[in-house]
Amino acid sequence: MSVLGFKSVKGSKPARGGGKSGGGAKSKGSAKAKATAKAKRPAKSGRRAESRSTSRPGRSPLRVLARLVAMLCAFAFMVAFAVVLAKLTLQPSPASEALTHTNLQPGSTLRAYLDQPELRDAVKQIGGNLLLGVPFGILVPVVAPRTRGVLRVLLLTATVMLLVEFAQGALVTGRAFDIDDVILNTTGALIGYLLLGRRLSRVVHARKPSAA
């Protein structure tokens, strides 16, 4: 019985070996499949990179030229506006020297405008100061795209108008520093930015599409 059992065990060994050889053939086949799959991957990735590169819109010379022309026009309007602003605010007025006074209290001059007997005079004073700030809100984001944003435009306009008011009070005869003028000019810049400046800046300085 033991001899027969030993023989039977020996006879079963080739079957095991045959199973191993079959597994080896399968492992070889899977290795070949993996190798071919790896060989195909770079080609697919290359095709994807090509499709991405072709789908990305490049900077056309016409678009760059249009952006440059728009910025130059905005800069020219900004210079012209600066000249007009200087003539309106820095021109001496000796006749009104006795009537002008420095105002550091917000709202004081506004109340004086509104207390005038004729509404036309109040509209002229308040509307004129508002209009002086509108070009800042429209042109500044186009000339300097880094100033886009409500807070940046308001801060830049307030800084410029503060400098103008300081120059009026210190250097120009018949002119005085008025904080209400700064407030009105800054409000005008806000109106100009919200109505037109923000949209115009987005059109001229369109952001690049993000890579997929």
Any key phrases for this structure?
6 helices, 212 residues, mainly alpha, 77% helix, disordered N terminus, elongated
Structural class: mainly alpha
Question: Describe the biggest sheet?
Answer: none
Global geometry? elongated
Strand content: under 5%
What value does the average pLDDT take?
74
Count every helix, treating DSSP H or I runs of 4 or more residues as helices: 6
Distance between the termini: 75 Å
The portion of residues assigned to helices is over 70%
Output the radius of gyration: 39 Å
Taking pLDDT < 50 over at least 5 consecutive residues as the criterion, the unreliable ranges are: 1-27, 42-46, 53-57
How many strands appear in the DSSP assignment? 0
Query: Would you list the SSEs in sequence order as H and E?
Result: HHHHHH
